[in-house]
Amino acid sequence: MTDISVAFQGEHGAYSELAAIEYFHRKVNTIPCHSFDDVFAQVSGGFSSFGIVPIENSLAGSIHRNYDLLLRHNLQILGEYHLRVSHCLLGLPGVRLEEIQFVHSHPQALAQCEASLNRLGLQPVVDIDTAGSARWLRDNPDKHSAALASHHAARVYGLQILLENMEDDQANYTRFIILGQKSSRRIEKKTAAYKTSIVFSLTNQPGILFKALSVFALRDIDLTKIESRPMPGHVWEYMFYIDFAGHASDPICQRAVDHLKELATSLRILGSYPRHQIDYQAV
Amino acid sequence: MTDISVAFQGEHGAYSELAAIEYFHRKVNTIPCHSFDDVFAQVSGGFSSFGIVPIENSLAGSIHRNYDLLLRHNLQILGEYHLRVSHCLLGLPGVRLEEIQFVHSHPQALAQCEASLNRLGLQPVVDIDTAGSARWLRDNPDKHSAALASHHAARVYGLQILLENMEDDQANYTRFIILGQKSSRRIEKKTAAYKTSIVFSLTNQPGILFKALSVFALRDIDLTKIESRPMPGHVWEYMFYIDFAGHASDPICQRAVDHLKELATSLRILGSYPRHQIDYQAV
Q: How many angstroms separate the CA atoms of A67 and A56, rounded?
């Protein structure tokens, strides 16, 4: 085993842990944390080498808490990973699908599988998270109950996969970011394409966002994401989070960021990291 | 009493009901609904004249569910209202502050008053909503318990206001929108300034958002809000929600929208309505 550790929110078997394992190819110790705040604190305090948190889901949108925590902590984004979120129906070993009556899981997972559950005539039971429902089933063996969680949770808690791909909309991806200290060794991946994440604030004047975006458009730099968040203590003023294609050390990107600094009241580069490109099967 | 009805999410005493009463100057029947979905369904089905839902909070950000519901229903935004969210500590009539040990409320309200509660040495107890915690206290009289809710909830449930302005950050405003059917009679207010809300989608190509914003910038039309949401069924493609200053029937705004239609793959005008301008006291 390695001494590299990755903090994640949830308990063993969580989708965040699965993303960490796939991103680092199993060569890490995964550290469960109670909250996203704890993940950031764990990495900031030097207790874990890295952290992994979800930042955006293709169905539900951005996870705003993590945008706010990025601003509050002085960490760097070292990488990104797109995880295909596929919910499995998990039962105790040996049970048959026909025996299942109740399905335990997190409300969002239950909602994402609503049509499947209705079709099978299964009754949803709300639990605190997906992995937690799998652990619950292991600890409270009941042949009429199933959990809705990942295939990874099935492995962790010794459960049987009764059905796969339970989600009604297969275009279900979560984008995770990998966090580290500014001094962290970079995680090198063979890739030509980089992405950079920045956060900046603008004064409230007509056309200011248009001007801000012009620093990228005039240099043909592709934006992959724009997100606005309320600015703490300023009613209806916003911080903007932008991801753009390219590395912050590329001269052209450097000039765009310098140009943006002329317009922005504050600006911070959150990190440049290899872009994770995958072929989406279900669009 | 009037036969005009306004659907809101929550139970009597909720902040949404308070916003409805302030917006309509009490001249309406307020109809409590279980969920935001029910508010939209109530108005779409013609069971209520109007609906009111929160769309954005100055601390917590946008309420995404309501952006998604705007897209799903063919309703019109007829107005907006900015409510100052001020949490009061409510006790049974006759109790003294010194007797209080426990404070019941919604997790977000408790979080917004964390420093105040710590200072007073009060223990938070999580409840399903603010108004619900006030009703609970009326129905389960306990002189050691208080609820954290609006002054309106105090009136509704006959409770005593022990302390006002419990929130740690006073820059706490929620923007509500007033919904009606396309055929609804407009709610006229004496105001010079209008605002228009639109939603549109763009193909994923470099600089496209910059081009989209140019239709406003080149005509000196001020944007007051921009929000992106994942497009259902399209991984990492977005719908954009924009609010701009002006009425959709103004020739200049009309030309901007026509120009945007040349770039957008879809576009819908959600409504033009009088702008609610208030002086923010605490910034």
A: 10
Please tell me the number of Cα atoms within 13 Å of B189 on its side-chain side: 19
**Comparison of pLDDT for A3 and B15, the residue scoring more:** B15
- Cβ-Cβ contacts under 8 Å for B94 (sequence gap 6 or more): B160
Say if the Cβ atoms of B213 and A209 lie within 8 Å: yes
Active site annotation includes B196: no
Q: Is A265 a catalytic residue?
A: no
Phi, then psi, of B183 in degrees rounded to 5: -85, 0
B71, containing H or E segment: helix B64-72
Three-state DSSP class for residue A252: helix
| Total residue length of chain A | 283
Q: How high is the ipTM of this complex?
A: 0.75
From chain A residues 261-280, the ones with a CB under 8 A of any chain B CB are 280
- Picking from B225, B231, B236 by the largest number of A CB atoms within 10 A of its own CB, the best residue to mutate is B236
B61/A60 CB distance under 8 A: no
Measured in angstroms, the CA of B101 and the nearest CA of chain A are apart by 27
The mean pLDDT of B34-57, rounded to a whole number, is 94
For residue A75, the SS3 value is coil
Give the distance, in angstroms, between the CA of residue A257 and the centroid of all CA atoms in the same chain: 26
d(CA A195, CA A276): 9
Tally of CB atoms within 10 A around A91: 25
B19's CB contacts (< 8 A; 6+ apart) are B8, B52, B54, B81, B83, B174, B176
Of the candidates B253, B178, B186, B181, which has an alpha carbon nearest to the alpha carbon of residue B215? Answer: B253
Query: Which helix or strand (DSSP H or E) is residue B148 part of?
Result: strand B145-149
- Considering only residues 28 to 57 of chain A, which have any Cβ-Cβ distance to chain B shorter than 8 Å? 57
Note the pTM of the prediction, 2 decimals. 0.80
Per-residue pLDDT at A6 exceeds 80: yes
Alpha carbon distance B108, B104 (integer Å) = 12
Distance between CA B92 and CA B227 in Å, rounded? 42
Which residue, A269, A184, A215, is CA-closest to A6? Answer: A184
Alpha carbons B104 and B10: distance in angstroms, whole number: 16
Task: Give the pLDDT mean for B253-269.
Answer: 96
Rg (alpha carbons) of chain B, rounded to whole number? 21
The set of residues, in sequence order, having a beta carbon less than 8 Å from that of B53 and lying 6+ positions away, is B8, B9, B16, B36, B39, B40, B63, B66, B69, B176, B177, B179
Under DSSP, the state recorded for B175 is E
> Containing H/E element for A149?
strand A145-149
Instruction: Give how far A227 is from chain B: nearest CA, Å.
Output: 7
End-to-end CA distance of chain B: 38
**Assigned token pair, A168:** 């009604």
